[in-house]
Amino acid sequence: MSDDDRALIAAIRDGSETAFNTLVDRHQQAVRTFLRRLLGNDADADDMAQETFLAAWTHARSFRDDGDVRSWLCGIAWRKARGAQRSWFRRSARDTAHQELSSGLAGGASMEDRLAVKAALQALPLEQRAAVTLCLVCGFSHSEAANILGAALGTVKSHVLRGRERLREAIERKT
């Protein structure tokens, strides 16, 4: 953790709203990117990101001083997403089936390919989708993703490998 993040956490623990606002400004993009890819719906993801930061504010004392703030925040986001009802995830996937996948996952691909990848991503089991999103879209390492998801490193690697293959198959079926 950087000294800046260490100072922010200390100030947040003392009740500094300014420090909290700085923390949000610094890390909200990573949390929102993760949730948007995981949930497939920008509005729902933004709402859950707000819930994530509210939880971070109220539970700042639970942060381990030797940890990484971005990973801690994405871990909170993952637990919030996983706690949501499964029907909410299915409804979100259906509602966004025709949304264009943003540049992080298939930037140079055709619209048809992006839609195929988007549908394939939403069809993955939730844990696999989370691992794929963290590692392939958000740029987390396998070990960081394992820490965020509270899963074994081998499990995350397996999820990413299988998920990547399913996404590749979706593109090949469309071509």
3D architecture notes:
The chain is mainly α and 175 residues long. The chain folds into two domains: 1-96, Rna Polymerase Sigma Factor, Chain: A (Orthogonal Bundle); 103-175, Orthogonal Bundle (Arc Repressor Mutant, subunit A), CATH 1.10.10. Helices cover 77% and strands 0% of the residues. The chain contains ten helices and no strands. It has helices at 3-13, 17-39, 42-58, 69-83, 86-95, 103-106, 111-123, 126-137, 142-149, 153-174. It is elongated and about 55 Å long. The model is unreliable at 89-106 (pLDDT under 50).
Could you outline the blueprint of secondary structure elements for this entry?
Blueprint (H helix, E strand, L loop, with lengths): L2 H11 L3 H23 L2 H17 L10 H15 L2 H10 L7 H4 L4 H13 L2 H12 L4 H8 L3 H22 L1
Helix pairs in contact: 1-2, 2-3, 2-4, 2-8, 3-4, 4-9, 7-10, 8-9, 8-10, 9-10
Task: Give a quick set of tags describing it.
0% strand; 2 domains; mainly alpha; 175 residues; single chain; 10 helices; Rna Polymerase Sigma Factor, Chain: A; Arc Repressor Mutant, subunit A
